[in-house]
Amino acid sequence: MSVDRRPVSVAIIDDHPIATESLAARFAGAGFSVLAPAPSLETFDRDTTPGIVVCDLHLPGVSGAAAVADLHRRGLRVLATSGVATPDEVLDAVAAQARGFVEKTAPAQQFVAAVTAVAGGSFHVSARLAGFLLEDAHRRPLSRGEIGPGERNLLRGLAQGDLIDELRGEWGMTAAAVHDLLDRIFDAARRRRRLHRPSPREAEVMVLVGCRGMSHREAARAMNVKASVVADYLRTAKAKYVASHPDAPATIPPSTAAALWARELGFG
């Protein structure tokens, strides 16, 4: 039986030429086949099927989690990268099926390790992403299927800058066992975002009432719904806000919670 020894192909979507040239050189030097970089999702060749796509989270046009989700729907494995993304933007990319995140300032060997892991069907958790995942689990705990001590210990080690192979060797774990831990971590993170993030309609109400100062009636007219529906969206958005912000008082008015959360998430 023949073995396919062709190098793994890597596609880069990033609108910064200096960044794409640097990444392309890193990957080519490590033996990957690097496709012509695309400056946006819209210019990315839909007929290509790279082994992995390294996607910047701040792109012209379709960007962030929406870009990751589009690539995932095409059956492509995605490694997200950014130099300025917020924790929520990174976690939203994970929820959209990104299999890892690397800061643009990371050393070349980390990018190569990340691409190797993701192209091979696993995940890559940088120190920064590990910290985001731990904090998100603390702020937005799941009532069922939450990560356990093994997953948390792995994230703590990675957040401290330890390499995953170092931790695996120290703990005497197989690569498959570590992969299972990572799989559960990413699964919980995705379910957590779906559960605790505002829905599109809730987000729309948060902007109209919380940021633009519309009354329930004005927002209802803008959304073509009843005022009572606007009130319901505000109540559910408040419940999610309080659940994910332990310091928020239970008596916070829904419109106040909407305004605070909309600004925190960059909606306003």
Automatic annotation (TrEMBL):
Source organism, top-level taxon: Bacteria
GO terms of biological process kind: phosphorelay signal transduction system; regulation of DNA-templated transcription
A Pfam family: Response_reg
Keyword set includes Phosphoprotein: yes
Response regulatory domain ranges (all copies): 9-119
SUPFAM superfamilies to which the protein is assigned, alphabetical: C-terminal effector domain of the bipartite response regulators, CheY-like
Keyword Cytoplasm found: no
GO molecular function annotations of the record: DNA binding
UniProt KW keywords: DNA-binding, Phosphoprotein
Modified-residue entries (4-aspartylphosphate), positions: 56
Protein name: Response regulator receiver protein
